[in-house]
Amino acid sequence: MNRVFKTAWSSIRQQYVVTDEHHAAKGKATKSAVAIAVAALLTVSGAASAAYVQGSHALDGINWAKDAEYQKDWGLRAMNASKAYELGFYGQDVKLGIVDSGSFFGHSQLQGQLIDTSITGKYGSTGNRYQKWAGLNWGADHENPFGSYKEGDAFDRASSDFALNVNDSHGTHVAGTIVGKRDGSEFHGVSFGSKLIVGNTGGTDNSTYSPILTDRTNPSDAASYSVMDYNYFKAVYAAVAESGAKFINNSWGTNARVRITGTGDKWYDDSYGYTNFDVSSAWITQDQVKVADRNEDGSVKRDENNNVVYKNSGNPMSVDLDVPGGYIGEWFLYKKAAASQVQNKENAKFEDNVAFVDAMGDVAKKHNIVQVVTTGNRNEDNPYLRAGYANFRPEFEKNWVAVAGVKYVNEELYYISNFNDAGYAKWWTVAAPGNAIYSSAVVDGAYVTPGKDEGAGKKLGDETYAAWGGTSMAAPHVTGALGVLASRYPYMEPTQVRDVMFTTANQNILYDTSTEDGKRDQKKHDESFVKGVPSVNFGWGVPDLDKGMYGPGQLIAKNDIKLGTYSDHWSNDISQIALDARRIEDKAELAAVTAELQTANGLEAGDEKDAKTAYYTIRKTELEARRDGTAEGYKDYYVGSISVTGEAGSGATLVLTGENTFRGGVEAGKGATVVGFAESFGSYDPKFTFANGTVYEGATTTTTAKEAGTDAVEMNEALKKIDGLLTVKDGGRGGVIASYVDEVTDKGSLRPAPEAQHGTAVTVEKGGTLLVHAASTTGSTATTVKKIEAVDGALVSGWAQGSDLAQIYNGGKLSGTVTFAEGDGTKLKATEDDMLFFNAKTTVAEGGKSVLTEITRDETKSFGMFARNGNQRSVAQALEAKGGAIFEGLLSGNQSMFDSTLDTLDNDLLLNAQNAAVLNTLDVAKTAKDQALRRGVGSTAELAHGATLWATGIGNWGSADHTAKVDADFYAALVGADIQVGGSTTLGAFFGAGTTDFDAGRDGKIDSDDIHYGLYGKTDVADVASISYGVVRTEQDREGHRPVSLVNKTGYNAFNTDADITTFYVEGAYTGLDLGSAVKVEPYAGFAYIRASADGIADRADDVSFTTKVEDQTLQAATLGVRGDMPFTAGSVRMALKGDLSWSHFFGDTQAEARLGGDAAGKIVGAELSNLFSVGLGIEANVGKSTTFGLSYTGNFSGDVTSNGLSATVRYAF
Question: Which 8-state DSSP code applies to residue 887?
Fold first, then answer.
């Protein structure tokens, strides 16, 4: 949305700009409050095309190196976030999600950034409240005093806001890193243009998401453990996903921790209050658990030397996360413990998806969103189960991101070695800033103590700020980065945005070898890591929001790109190094798990056998499906490819300009145009033959990850010599281009790489169109296709960029030739686009070895001839004279695009609203004038002190009809007071408020909060005449929206504006007319001077924008009329009928006008106020000694502007 208002301080630009902050500063009444006030008074008175992806310009001109907010979080610099911001992408129009320990909605850095959720349902299992430290308070009965739930119990959480004494500050800190707003204070989040949908775990960051030993008497039985409830967490995640979140951050919670004792052996030890088995194998026996003895009060028993007394001696452990396969036990314990908690065992077997982490995945898969999960902070070689869960449910992998951590030292990235490694989850892991991260916080009594450190001078529940570290702080940087990338690629699925982040990540990460951990990781790094392939330490690397702006860096899957109406440009070199390496690694893993499965089948019956056979069966099934590449979802699993579709007729286009070496080629499908340089369509080798006929087998059972990565890099060099493939499908368009002017990421004019060693072949299917690039105005643009295959029904046509077409609009031609090195194009049939202003001729050369296209201007066509009214003619002619983005877009557009663009540009909603408001203000002036005239019986009420207090409710319903027909509903409540001065003069003042709704249907809508005030008076002249006079001012605070369609780009833009109308009036009436009866008739003449002004607005449809500047309007009105009163009595109540007929002629600026700017040009006008006929009818009654009540109707009828209204008045004299 684009908002343009009056000048105010902009926190984004850090300067004064046109913005909506002006309105926020006014402290205006809410619409609902005004509406209620008006309604109350009225009740008393008885009244019944494809858009090139383009960033916002809101951040233009900022020096990020010196911007205090940006510099506050070093993580932004580490991810090159300013590069994305400079291109205008900061998460705008993207919804993100968080599940954590609540987020403080009242924090000033988060106000307006968060969206609440609520959940209801029933628990599906019996368990406890997951508190890590609960063990300190367990008594002899082994029950958890922190609370429990039972299967079938109801849960009902009305809000996900931070709850004091239930949640902690963790979720507030994480939320700030993701979407903390940019407002000129403190810091801002990574994706500050996004909204964050909040889900609440119901606990704190100390909530333990791994199995907790709830029965310490039998630690070897899975039924002795408790895990979190599937139903509760599915409800939480579903609420966030269904509210629109594309990515959900999961920084919350911790695995139960194990204290390791002794110098040589590892022991399980619960004497420190830790719960057991975060890294254990699930087939552990009680003898392997070193269990502390307890006193009657539940405290740890100690001997005379203060040493812990244990119930048993324990045995050394042999399996943990630092040992290959140790994670199998952790997974098995999750599954078995979860199943044991459900009473209905038929619905909760081991193989069922009953653990809470299954709920995360099930929701992610259903809604095709991405879960972002921390690896953990315990210096393990593998992540905790939650981050690695896709290893056990492979169908979740594309919906998963695990996050490790890095720190910044002297502006260089260093791996944080005491966090958990990517390990077996490296294929879906990244690392992100996780050290000393500054963000929002709340004084919670846990993380932040009142009166101390960050809580100094604050009490519980107050907002504050803090710098914390951990993978909890790393994950929100990733979620924020995904939000920024999603704003850059609005047409992509969340899983595709994830892949862009992976494949453009920065792998230049160092290790601090001054520490033992650093030396350990350096050694591991040296042994396994190859650039381009995920590392077992940090996965893909650190998100790079610079490189991420230019398309994916690799393909790691088949990419079905659904452009819709968008167009985009990818300039990164796109390989599939990682996918090739994974093929090799998977082959080695398949051999290994096959052997492990055979060994597991020979084990004695028990947990170990069950765990290993279940796990290795899952892995073997998955790896075989990938290898075979034939099952649904696995076809050509290791072949990266791009298939593009778009909305028919939208002009949706994908431009490729990198030197690309993915194996699967590119398809231009229905509704899409795909063009690129010859080297940009990949290196077509889906069978891994490297064009020599020999299939590359790759791995053996002993192949290492380093060997796989090295082979993949070498293969990529070989692929640079293999031609790509472009397949043009039915309804698609595609071709090779020789140059490109970047319209998306400001790279300027681009040409093919001279050192490129491969080109592309093209296959054109029936109904597909081969495009021939025409760009040269002096010769012929030449491109080459290595091989052409075309069938009967294949088409060929010319293609040119709008900027090139603009060069020949006033004469000249564009030419282009494509030559086929192999094959021929004899079956290609020339067809031309429906271009309004150009003629294109495409010719297939004899023998079909080349195609020539020429594009020339059609001199018989001009912009103005397609206009359908005066406003459109003005705009069309101005566009033609000015040029610019809209002009260039329309040059290559069709009739539909032209019509929709002119319909947008001649939208006179603002102007018609202005003249409708002028009439409404005149009615307010008439109301004030009538109070001064004391028309009707009210003038005979006793005036004890010569002062009168009055109140009026007005309701008008009218329309202003020009290009856009605007229905205007106007309501106002006025109160005033006046006093007689000198016997012949009455002076008064009034004030009021109301609303106006201007509804133009599909052309847009404006809702206005109105303030009215003024002065009025009347002076009698010798009992035969009276002069009325006054000044009335109306101020409107408008909020509106209207659709925008520019070329093939669409939007629905919101705006806030101010409008002011000031009216001066004077009127003379002859009061001496004697008709010999009680009827009183007054002829009158009047004059009004009206000054109206309104703020302009800015509209945007992606990369195209224009402004509408409403001109100040000055007009006058001369009025002739006659009015009359006829008194009568109904019972004892004195009453009077009133009537008024008048004619007014407007002169001056009778039509509101606006000038278009930006990418548009021209002048538009609105409905005209010319001759206005008015009629008024009313009745007044004297309902008390000093009180009168009146009800009246007023109708105003002009050619373009009309209104009908009711008003009710109560007048009290005292």
Answer: H
